[in-house]
Amino acid sequence: MACGKDGEQDSRIGGIAASIRVVPDFPKKGIMFQDITTLLLDPKAFKNTVDLFVERYIGKDVSVVAGIEARGFIFGPPIALAIGAKFVPLRKPRKLPGEVISEKYVLEYGTDCLEMHVGAVQPGDHALVVDDLIATGGTLCAAMNLLERAGAEVVECACVIELPELKGREKLNGKPLYVLVESR
Ligand SMILES: O=P(O)(O)OC[C@H]1O[C@H](OP(=O)(O)OP(=O)(O)O)[C@H](O)[C@@H]1O
Ligand SMILES: Nc1ncnc2[nH]cnc12
Fold first, then answer.
1. Predicted interface score ipTM higher than 0.95
2. Which of 56, 108, 149, 169 is catalytic?
């Protein structure tokens, strides 16, 4: 969770958490869907979200922000622009036109695959992986595998929301994960 130097929660977190709508039983029964589209409707909450990430990563030698399709494409690019890093989209299969590397993974509700353009990331790049949410951690794991296969060092993963009961953090092989809010 985002805390200040004295360990207290940043005062912006409450507004961010309150702006996220929770939709029960979407897209199927038993899933409490964390809907960030309502956060995007609140310019103050959206700006505070991006600012909190930028404040954490500016000046930290991050050379690439990798955003995960689709919702990582909302938060990743403004962070990349603000910290002076390149943005690399990690896309669902058959969307990227160039040569790709692929990683399959298991989701809370199904399976999927992520692809990255060969050459987008170089050995020696320092990567930050950005997504809206970590559930089981499978998506972030696949993203990190792609970046590491390309020779990058993954510095950290950053998400707006964590579903702690799914223990996705434990799947990240000790890689640090920074989140702003826990699911309600
Ligand atoms: O931690 P995990 O269990 O892997 O799940 C997290 C992923 O699930 C959601 O994306 P989804 O696959 O639903 O795709 P979308 O963003 O295209 O809707 C979310 O945006 C994360 O990317
Ligand atoms: N509960 C959830 N809410 C939103 N996105 C998700 N992706 C996986 N689980 C999710």
1. yes
2. 108
